[in-house]
Q: What sequence folds into this?
DNA sequence: GGTTTTTATCGTAAAATTACGATATAGAAG
DNA sequence: CTTCTATATCGTAATTTTACGATAAAAACC
């Protein structure tokens, strides 16, 4: 997460966090886990293992990635761990995407033939 | 893009497209290319190669991924190819994220101690 | 105490992604 | 027609990611 090309150094703090979130969500299993967590509202844990039909260690790994990206939060509940979508994280993601690439596509939908796009 | 677990089969068409976009954007180089394209507004091409300081073939590969995800559009302009952010694609992405996980975090920001989150 | 349950971590094999050079393609320019 | 320029594609090496089983850790339960 820190040997990511000189390119990344020109990014704002928010952009770096956004990129990390997108990377975490870029995996279809994790994408699906997010949906599942949002649906159940309440936190889950080994439930996700059954849901994904992947090995427990694999799921635990995916949950770690999502947690480190700030997309979910886990709380130890007895012997188990209870996860839920991070309201703050999701809010951040939505806000960032909403205002992402503001300079883009200012000209009309798609007319100009010269200057290509 | 089609051997993606049984999990993916329960997804809507829009969700599949969204997941594909997130996967494309999950790479920091491609994330950065999108920003660069948006900044320049006008389309570019070998310019991106200089910008990223990666091999031409590598950049071409990344552009292909972005193009296939519907995030950019390329138009052959003489011997070169001119790229720009896809207005439709970006609009789709923003719309989908905005309404993503609607069932999430309905309870207050973060109070409940029981039932974990 | 010991046992059971649930999860995290470790080590590793398999698979996918990324990056590169070399080559092929297409159009512009002479 | 030949040359030059700009990209795309191919084949492949290096890296990263993903998935698994085995093991460790922590709490509930007997």
A:
């Amino acid at each position: 997460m820190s040997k990511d090309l000189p390119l990344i150094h020109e990014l704002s703090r928010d952009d770096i966090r956004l990129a990390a979130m997108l990377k975490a969500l870029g995996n279809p299993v994790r994408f699906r886990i997010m949906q599942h967590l949002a649906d159940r509202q309440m936190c889950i844990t080994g439930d996700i293992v059954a849901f994904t039909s992947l090995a427990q260690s694999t799921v635990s790994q995916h949950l770690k990635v999502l947690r480190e990206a700030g997309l979910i939060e886990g709380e130890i509940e007895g012997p188990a761990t209870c996860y839920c979508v991070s309201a703050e994280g999701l809010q951040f993601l939505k806000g960032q995407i909403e205002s992402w690439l503001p300079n883009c596509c200012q000209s009309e939908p798609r007319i100009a033939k010269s200057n290509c796009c």
About this structure: The two ends of chain A are 34 Å apart (CA to CA).
